[in-house]
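Quick log. Single chain, no ligands specified.
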Amino acid sequence: MKAAVLERTGAPLVIDDIDLAAPGPHEVVVRTAAVGVCHSDLHFIDGIYPHPIPGVPGHEVAGVVEAIGSQVSAFKPGDHVIGCLSVFCGHCPHCITGRLVLCATPDVKIPPGKSKRLSRRGEHVSQMLQLSGFAEQLLVHEHALVKIRPDMPLDRAALIGCAVMTGFGAVVNSAQVRAGETVAVIGCGGIGLSAINAAYVAGAARIIAIDRIPEKLEFARRMGATDLIDASQGDPVKQLRELVGDGVDHAFEAIGLKQTTEQAWSMLAPGGTATIIGMIPPGVKVELHGPDFLREKKIQGSLMGSNRFRVDMPRIIDLYLQGRIKLDEMISQRLPLARINEALDALRDGHLARTVITFDGVA
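-> predicted structure:
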């Protein structure tokens, strides 16, 4: 099969032929239909987060089951599925207490570089984030997949595999935003836009979108933002307080920077919660003002929207098909795998919402 291979950090991906192992017990082969190009991929491609190479990136993926290994009972060839990097075992303390996203059991969440599912001319190739979606096929544990209804377009479904689940889940699961509360979202990429849309669905009274790029702020308005702040025009914390006085009930950071994390904290009203979604680089330290804790402010992380993805993703699909969740608006362009580096450059440029890589001949 063809796949986009990361051979050297900071260098373009190389389209090459990759061999897929035969499915073992509890493993499923998926024919890739679409894969979103996520900023998290750049963290590994550009070397911000280390990972063994050569490897195949890509994790925001949807497709059709092609074959199954032994002991697989939940899937059959022809099923439409979404992949999720939150592979779960179902029996560790995290799983049995309902926090599947924190599962780290190594027989399902194989440590980086240890999976033997991919090879190239007899040499091992790393499966990145349990999926390696920039490829024509996937070989994954069955607990990395959720079956979805067949009338859901797979290019839209792919977005739910990361950006939508992460942003939507941060609002609904991690922060549990309630109707009438006020929300600020810093960063209007795919994840931030999904958080804005989720806040709208949750009934937030004010949804303040913050970014430096005018096009992204307009995307945010279409996703449900009630107010827009252009961070290039001055201190966004000051601009926000001019809008809502004492601050917001919830601030979501969807970029992964020290400065914007500290801004999210500073935007909170007393009793407010800052939820950090972005991937802050290793070694970066965040500084908070100590007296704010006496005002019962809280800060928390959110991993993949604190998801229970086999429950959450089908629900998001239902909301989309009812017209309540917006996915069509998030796709800025569709490109073939051969143009993956063009898609990555567009992501670095920062002006598009989402690029989706699509594969010919897949439903």
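DSSP finds nine helices and 19 strands in the chain.
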